[in-house]
Amino acid sequence: MTSSIPLSAQLINLFAAVILLLGFAMLAQRRMLSLINLFALQGFCLFLATLVAAVTTGQVHLFYSAGLTLALKVLLLPWILHRLVRQLKVKREVEALINIPTTMLVGIVLVMVAFNVALPISELSHTITRGTLGIALAVVMLAFLMMITRQKAISQVVGFLSMENGLFLAATSATYGMPMVVELGIALDVLVGVIILGVFFFQIRDQFDSLDIRHMEKLKDN
Amino acid sequence: MISISGLLGQAFAILLALLLAPLLSGWVGQCRAWFQSRTAPPLLLPYFMLQKLFNKDVVLAHNASSLFRAAPFVIFGCMVLACAIVPTLSTDLPFAPAADALALVGVFGLARIFIALAGMDVGTAFGSLGGRREMLVGFLAEPALLMVFFTLAMIAQSTSLVTIVETLAYRELVIYPSLAFAGIAFTFVSLAENARVPVDNPATHLELTMIHEAMILEYSGRHLALIEWAASLKLYAYSCLGLALFFPWGIAPGDNFFALVAAIPLLMFKLAIGGFLLAGIETVNAKLRIFRAPEFLGTAFMLAVLGLLVRLLLEVRV
Predict the structure, then answer these.
(1) Chain B residues interacting with chain A (CB cutoff of 8 angstroms)
(2) Cys bridge to B90: B164, B172, B252, B288, which one at CB 3.0-4.6 A?
(3) pTM of the full predicted structure?
């Protein structure tokens, strides 16, 4: 290979692009189970990207974080969410606040903003994969958008987890990962967060007979 | 500049397109039947169909204008031209300088306008309904297709299809993430443009859903034969375009005769795989409501724009 970009960086770029693509697919998805599957797939791409970075740089802690990603985001969290969906019997999203094509257009604008914002920042970084910083920022913004436009509590949690994926990608691409302590802490926080939110789902449903969180905006019964 | 071998190669490519196009349609129909566990129609069914239609007399409506009679020839001519421009076997195409990727979109657009006008010409309700729906799909699909071409043109630094294919096929292997986006967008657009399942069903005559079939209801005899042939040529042109842009390996460089001969079975193999996948897509997807079609094509446009953005971010600098 004599091209200007080494193969490993090309692979990481490819996985980053697929992660962005899956972010958009999640934004467009109406069914709950497919949404969770897409999230698992996004986690798997993140795992592959981290693995490639780990093999290229030979940094041991990147291997650990790749393994953590695989165990937590590809296997454990989707499994918990699947179980929640089955127990709560939510099949599909009621219409989102903004319709899907409009959401997609807003998403494209967000991607442009993210790319432009990330451009000067990534100049400061010296890693081979600094180009993916823009994509990571775009994934974070898309996840934000999903949390804003969705009404069901579960899709908001998936949005939250997808945002964490974006942050993780940013950390890997810009600085080759955070220190191990920080990563472990975040991973455990996310796990505990999902478990607590799962308990909340049941509480919300018992209280309002629905997972639509708009019911919670009313302060008193009428 | 224009060599004899180039001209021969060009003529051979057009001839092959004319002959292979109905076969591709027949193959897709057969695969669809297999997927849906029906008894498959014979592979050569489209040829029998064309022969039957060419032997039948033309019945014209009383108020059909000359445009109605001219339209099949214009549409057929457009599709043959499209097949001539797309590099199928070799990149040595004397016709290629006549039209680049953007002009190709224009050629498809011209055919679309004529078929929509012809549908409205006789003044039946179905004809104008089909014409309007076709224009709705067309005006949404065209920008997405242009965006796909822009992404490829940025990679190859040229809008000429021949240059794009040469860049992608003969340079060292580089992974272009933007091509993944462009490829998916192109698949969406091809499905919509060729009246395939998520947007239209080529086998339906149900008035609520048909688009392409609604426009050609008034045609008969050799006119209908030409339109059917043009439809299969369009499918062939889009398939070859997709193969040339995203799987360009095996297309003969320049006027190398042996490479050209070797390219034929490879092309047929790739087309067979493509047709099989197309039938698979058509089987696992349900037809969308007509008002969902803008959403489908909007997604295609969005993917193409994303491809362009990813190209700018990831691949240009560094």
Answers:
(1) 172, 174-175, 177-178, 180-181, 184, 294-295, 298-299, 302-303, 305-306, 309-310, 312-315, 317-318
(2) B252
(3) 0.87
